[in-house]
Amino acid sequence: MSELTVDVITSLDGYGAAEGWPGFWGMEGPEYFEWMASEPTDYTVLMGRKTYDLMSAFAANGAEGTGPLDAQPKVVFSSTLAEPLGWRNTRLVSGDAVEAVRAMKHDGVALHTLGSLSLCRTLLTAGLVDRYRVVVFPVVNGATGYDNMYAGWPDVRLDLLDHRVFDGRLQMLEYRPTVLDGPPDAPAPA
């Protein structure tokens, strides 16, 4: 069975983006980009429609960093998109994402998400996520943040698998998540 890794970037207070801030909060650096470029790409990319729309537009315009994604197999989950999709190597799944990903995991190909917070939350809640990898940017977006990463999540215990610091300020934390029914010492429901 293959592994599913959820990859996200976030502000310290858990936002995926903030109004008026540039991409990567303007804090990306050479070590971070070198790490991203050195990561294996032998996996299928999973994304929702909003992320697909954004990233396929970047790829169509030749944005830096989208070249490797162009060649990778991609799956977009959407009930509003229709075939044919414009971004090559992309397959559309309009049915149940949980069932589709569960079947993909049995195929033996590694899976990684790209953006797609609601998809990530759905897959985590279903117990399908094997690795949760977050790069934390040293900024708090209390006033301007949107797309709170953890809104709507169940309780989750995270066991640290790996960690790293890039460019002296960005922290990569990789965990094995375990979805909990509640706090660890809570009595079992009757």
UniProtKB/TrEMBL annotation:
Domain Bacterial bifunctional deaminase-reductase C-terminal: 4-168
Gene Ontology MF annotations: 5-amino-6-(5-phosphoribosylamino)uracil reductase activity
GO biological process, one term: riboflavin biosynthetic process
Domain of life of the organism encoding this protein: Bacteria
InterPro entries: DHFR-like_dom_sf, RibDG_C
Transmembrane segments: none
Record protein name field: Bacterial bifunctional deaminase-reductase C-terminal domain-containing protein
Species of the source: Occultella aeris
Taxonomic lineage: Bacteria, Bacillati, Actinomycetota, Actinomycetes, Micrococcales
